[in-house]
Amino acid sequence: MKVRLLLIMVFFMGVSIFAQQKTVTGTVTSDSDPLPGVSVTIKGTTTGTETDFDGKYSIQANVGDVLVFSYLGYKTVEMTVAQSNTIDVSLEEGNNVLDEVIIVGFGTQSKRKLTDNVAKINAADISNIPNPSVLNNIAGKATGVQITQTNGKVEAGLNIRVRGQASISAGTQPLYVLDGIPLINNNESSNGSPTNPLLTLSPNEIESIDILKDASSAAIYGSRGANGVVIITTKKGKEGKAKFNINLSNGFSDRANSRDWLNAAQYVELFLEAGARSPFGNLTGFVQGRFDRYSNNTDWRNAAVDTNWEDLALRKGYTRDVDFSMSGGNSKTTYFFSAAYNDTKGIVRGNQLERISARTNVQHKLTDKFTAGMSVNFSRVDIDRIANDNAFVTPLQAIAQAPISPAYDATGEPFTGTVYANFLLQDKHANYNTIIRRVNGRMYGKYEIIDGLTFNSDFGYDLYTQSEDSFTGRLAPFQSTNGQAFASDVATESFNFSNYFNYDVKFGDDHDLNVVAGTEFNKSKRRRTSVTGTQFPTDDFQTINSAAQITAGTGSFTEFAFVSYFGRATYSFKNKYLFKASVRRDGSSRFGKAVQFGTFTAFSGGWILSEEDFLADNETLTFAKLRASYGTVGNAEIGNFASRGLFGGVSYNQRPGIAPTQPENQQLSWESSTQTDIGFEFGLWNRITGELAYYIKDTDDLIFASPLPPTSGAASINRNIGRIRSKGIEFAFQSKNIVSDDFTWNTNFNIGQNDNEVVRLPGGNDVIGGRNILRQGEVANAFYLIEYAGVDPANGNALYNLNNGTGGTTTDPNAAQRIIVGNPFPEWVGGLTNTFNYKDFDFSFTFQGEFGASIYNSAGRFQSANADWFDNQSADQLRRWQNPGDITDVPEARLAGGNGTAHSTRYLEKGDFVRLRNITLGYTLPKDVLDKAGFSNVRIYMSGFNLLTFTGFTGYDPESRSDAGGIGQVFYSAPAAKTISMGVNLSF
Amino acid sequence: MKKIYALILLVAATVFVSCESELNVEPAQSISQDAALATEANILNILIGTYDEAGQAATFGGRTHLIADLLGSTNEIAWTGTFLDPRQFFTKSILVDNGFVAGHWANSYEVINQANLVIDNVAKITSSTANRDKAEGEAKFLRALTYFDLVRLFADPYVAGGANAQLGVPLHLKGILDYGGNLDIARSTVAEVYTQILSDLTDAVAKLPATNEFFADRFSARALQARVYFQQGNYAAARDAANDVITNSGHALTSTYAGAFNNNADSSEDIFAFQVTAQTGTNQMITFYASQANGGRGGDVGVRAGYTALFDTPATDVRATFTYVSPDNGENLTSKYTNQFGNVPVIRFAEMHLIRAESNFRMSTTTGLAPLVEINALRARSGAPALAGPLTLNLLFNERRLELGFEGHLLHDYKRTQRSVGTTAYNAGNLVLPIPQAEMDTNSLMVQNTFYR
Fold first, then answer.
1. Which of A522, A496, A401 is CA-nearest to residue A440?
2. Does A651 contact chain B (CB < 8 Å)?
3. Contacting residues of B for A523, CB less than 8 Å apart
4. A497 interfacial to chain B (CB closer than 8 Å)
5. What is the DSSP string of A303-364?
6. CA–CA separation, A468 vs A189, rounded Å?
7. pLDDT for the residue numbered A794
8. Yes or no, beta carbons of A551 and B278 under 8 Å apart
């Protein structure tokens, strides 16, 4: 064994020397009470342990080592190991926040000395929330970060916008880095509705999430940092006896909101009126004929059938979590094993998710100088999916069905005579299953060459595979080919190899220097195949094997590579003057040869005023720091071959051909974002810590799929088109309002404001895409619509403002000029968390709010169209104009009259909201009971998610957006789920 | 210690020297523009691509027909589907952001650009003159076909004998590869567009072979010529072109009316059709005119009594009863579109008979056949009794409606003969499509049609 070990050592690093160690023991107390769970580590190493229930610890250390004692809510204490084998420590409560370790990419830094803007989320902030998407649970907890799950589907895509919109059509999502590996984050859904690739993450394996927001922090990720960087760190084992944690929870969920639709009697009344008033003559007979069919010839005149279609589309769901972890270690080896299971039945009919995941993190210290470790994670997510929002067969489109239609006919089969195809047929006769299987891992080694100088080598691998299988049976809507099956497989793999030196050195008492320099190589390959078959013997055969005809197939392959060199120097003088400089040079296969490399630099500085004499003894202002940073980061999320003029393969009657797929722009270059950040951090009475920041983020050479005149034969070209600016302020504080033996009350508050402006466009010309516009001096992608002017009281006509300077109105939507009418993104995002502990009870709640966004309901022209066609109408349409003199905002009901149904501000609303994002009440069993039962901790809790929403928005949900395209739009988009769950945490 | 440094440096150096070459990545599903235009094989590939482009849903995959049918109908058919965009055609109140209009316009110009690329690079076809001429003829046929429907739908009607200086559509005649420059282009006049269409067709007729599988051949171009002349009121030229097709193309009426439709391969009657299979192409006529069992949305376009009433002998004329009741919505649907993967006919042999007959009638000639004999022969196929005569323009107009219903002709016949569509005058602005908002927003030289300003 020893020989082999020696060989390994020689192979890696050559021979090194064993140092003499001894066992140091002691007790950690606070106000002379023993303090369990205190972290005890040897400074500059990863060796550590925790105190036991009696506050006792034991650790192997050398004379001269510095032991660091840290515990949440207490000031960290450092003690140097001397001759004595016993070190007892008393911890004082203090400003723990400042001593929090921030993960900054290729290293860490204390919050106290940080000169960047980084938002940190700890495990406690995201655990025990009954929602399968971990990142969604950050909402309201990170300043200036907007997190939105597209809609109430369990697998729904996630949008994270760090400090507003930095890009327009290049990617706007941050880079995700898990333990140093950039994560694959491609939406691979084939049904038009995006899935969230990060669903594979389980909350129980996450230690912390650090969001690098400013250029100075993100510059170390260079061309991939412009949208911010989300660094996810997984849990590691700590020295000490094995610790088991089990969490079990069960919850029930329901739609966060319902809407009022016409009931059968109201529907009949409104549409008979609309038929009689149609511009195409009295269509009463036609309407009655339709009613007969829609109602399956039941007595619609007396509302014999009154179906609530929303209740059929949305249902009660549940969520179940079972997590287990085991961790521990000795002075040489630490380990963390975890496994988690989540089963979520979505609130939308037919939508379900089941996830299993497991992780192993093991680290071993081969010698004093050489540490190596390996992390492996696998995860499997099995999702039953439903169609995208723009498909007739998606459940929520059922709200368009007439309430006089029965859902099922007399034989119990879904009724087929509905206005739109009955989604219950799809629900019964079709299925769509997606399975994501993800494996990622990392092997790393760290060698201390000389004191303070380490060489780190990390090799990471991420494999994201997804299979989709769908079958549409004979009786499903629109099925005419004796069944259709679709199967796809996609595998994306990413290799990441980073090597870097980290040098920590202290010159004298006053100078602290840290230098990081290294290289990183990242290559990602993606391969996808799919096949579609039709003509099945019976619906019992659902796999492609039994398809008599193969009607479509795809096979594609793509890749990209990044080669990067990076460096960073962090220097502090007298622990109060702080400086930092970072540089990264990135080469990417995504850009033309001439512009393949880009260099990104950033500088920052800080001044801890409270270390100065004039504040040293200030009892009120216990901490004060000024900081500023400036730097440039890039955005490389533009697709793999965006600059090239391309032709792709097509076919006509089984003959092969080619056709242009993308116009060429050889000038296409990096989109770069220059950011200035100024911040003031403060601490008051050792109780409150806070931070005020101001930033300006200018994104230049915006990459934009600039619309071309359709007469050119191409729809758009990728161009660097100008500059947008985001600027804003952020304010956050953490306060310990009450700290006493039995009762504590803490408050965390954060709010971020973002002003977005298009500063420059080529030639100053507007760029209009659909219902959004880029115009100099306005917010990016502002809504650009004609303006609804209400109803002419004399005749019930819908009116639109001409906006041609005359102040007049028109009934002709084609004559009205479009104007800028709203911002699709919020200007303010904020969150407020209160945490109370009373004896063995804990209680916390988080409110989240967003203000300033507008939402366009592109289905409004169907849903709230004063009975233009046979779609069921929102209940507010009952206040339609009926008689001359009526004052209302709903025009006269005219079947097929198109009276007010043009896309206009009639369907635009403010999306401001405040939401009770989560609320948790917990009870921890008293220690004496626990001891008898052999547990170290037992906590029973109730947790709620999205329980309350305060908003003026009349649609389903101010957070939901269409998953079928359009910026800031909703289209039959499912509301979020609200969930209440009960659970128990067990530790022993 | 030195060994370690050396080792580390060695590892780092090896890894990174080899890595920079990894940045050279080529796409696997695409080729560069330069390669696409370099060889004969690829120019011919672009030509196939042009057919595919033209056969897409937005245009000849069916919407070209659908738009003309809905705009040209009042009580013959009804749009009873839920889509708003087609309903605007039927109610003749089209909004400038209509998605079908935008799609038709954009797809048409994609076809034109691809046809232009073939024409620009036809010299690279060097294997034989015949191959080169064939490719040029096909590209010009597709370009003419596309411009003809654009100018008919987006411009005020052609006035026979008039100057036709009214705004037509922009004429792009060179393929665009450089999208960096100014792409603004103004509308040519209707006269200029028709001149271009006829010039392309003259070339196509000269260069195309007499047969060319399911691709455009000389008689496809000749038949389109007949249709264009007919629309212009140039009945002599229309008659002669139609006569040429009838006499020389080798095409013939199918033995039954039903035989002319829902074909997987071109029938004897198909002078030109867009090809659809289960794997390629799309048939949007199915989408909107057929039941769900037949692959449609259930029958958004219903055939109404106004159409049946046009028949003088509905009991015996199979064209009157060439319909079925949709199990999905109870509407009466045309049986012309029941094969989900059937071809979309663009020019049928029967149309040539109707053009020749009417042109002869108008010119008081009997080229090929006497008009009444020709009309009666066509009626006989469908079991309609012979008309006693004398023929009138109204009878000829009606016969076109009976034979060519739901095939995208009606609107253009109203305009050609200056008849009102219901109560809407043939030259009313709302019978012309708006220039799509997307074009107005990106092309500073574009002028909107008067009705939509």
1. A496
2. yes
3. 22
4. yes
5. TS----HHHHHB--EEEEEEEEEEEEE-SSEEEEEEEEEEEEE-SBTT-EEEEEEEEEEEEE
6. 8
7. 94
8. yes
Neighbour count for residue A878 (Cβ, 10 Å):
15
Chain-chain contact of B29 with A640 (C-beta, under 8 angstroms) = no
Number of H helices, E strands in chain B: 17, 7
pLDDT at A597: 84
A766: closest chain B residue by CA: B441
CA distance A778 to A774: 7
**Helices B129-154, B218-232: crossing angle, 10 deg rounding:** 30
**Ramachandran assignment for A803, one of left (phi > 0), alpha (psi -120 to 50 degrees), beta (any other):** left
Interface of A with B in 536-575 (CB under 8 A): 549-552, 556-561, 563
**Could you tell me where the DSSP H helices lie in B125-252?**
129-154, 190-207, 218-232, 235-248
- CB nearest to B12's CB, from A499, A588, A589: A499
Instruction: Note the ipTM here.
Output: 0.92
Q: What confidence score (pLDDT) does residue A219 get?
A: 80
Q: Which helix (H) or strand (E) holds A958?
A: none
Cross-chain Cβ contact A587/B52 below 8 Å: no
Query: Do the beta carbons of residue A429 and residue A483 sit within 8 Å?
Result: no
Using pLDDT thresholds of 50, 70 and 90, give the confidence band for residue B420: very high
Which one of 1.10.3210.10, 3.40.30.10, 3.20.20.70, 1.25.40.390 gives the CATH number of domain B5-452?
1.25.40.390
CB contact under 8 Å between B23 and A661, yes or no, is no
Which chain A residue is nearest to residue B439, measuring alpha carbons?
A: A709
pLDDT along chain A (988 residues), means of 10: 40 40 84 78 76 83 84 76 84 66 79 80 78 78 79 80 68 82 85 82 85 82 82 85 88 91 95 93 92 92 93 92 89 90 91 93 88 92 88 88 93 90 91 93 89 88 94 89 93 92 86 89 92 93 92 90 89 87 87 78 88 81 88 81 88 93 82 88 86 90 85 88 88 87 89 90 83 90 94 94 90 93 91 90 92 93 93 94 94 93 94 91 86 84 91 90 81 89 88
